[in-house]
Amino acid sequence: MEESEKFIRFSVSLPEDLLKEFDKVTESLGIQGRSDAIRKAMRDFIVNYTWVHESEGSMAGSITVILNHEISGIMDELTELQHKHINLIASSMHIHLDVSDCMIVLAVRGNVRDVERLNNELLALKGVKLVKYTIMTPGAELP
After folding, report:
1. What residues does each domain of the chain span?
2. How many other CB atoms sit within 10 Å of the CB of residue 90?
3. What's the rounded Cα separation, in Å, for the pair 128 and 103?
4. Buried residues in 8-47 as b, exposed as e (16+ CB within 10 A)
5. pLDDT per residue over 43-94, tens digit each?
6. Among candidates 92, 95, 94, 81, which has minimal Cα distance to 126?
7. Which of 26, 57, 101, 142 could form a disulfide with 97 if both were Cys (CB 3.0 to 4.6 A apart)?
């Protein structure tokens, strides 16, 4: 952070439990203060978004989804999406996390833009709590 950097104050509304967890993680990482932690988290969010959205060509990777399977229709919508994108999804795994939450891991390969569209469609499903998208370079392209 440069001295000439201008700071802007803003307020954010969060669930109390989320803030408590954020503060716990901030403290365990030794980050000095909530503002510094939020700046770091925002930078990470921006860097990851930019990396994912500026990549081109073929890729292999995974999309991990945490969802509440009790939301009406979510499992049918998920199955429909997987069949719609059968050319991208090499494999899928379904893990029961607790009585209401599941983790779905999709192994994907294909054009980055097509996989990104699938990722965004998953993110838009009602009942999806978290989506993590990981891009790997296909083996032939590694140095």
Report:
1. 16-53, 57-141
2. 13
3. 10
4. eeeeeeeeeeeeeeeeeebeeeebeeeeebeeeeeeeeee
5. 877 766 766 666 677 888 899 999 999 999 999 999 999 999 999 999 999 9
6. 81
7. 101
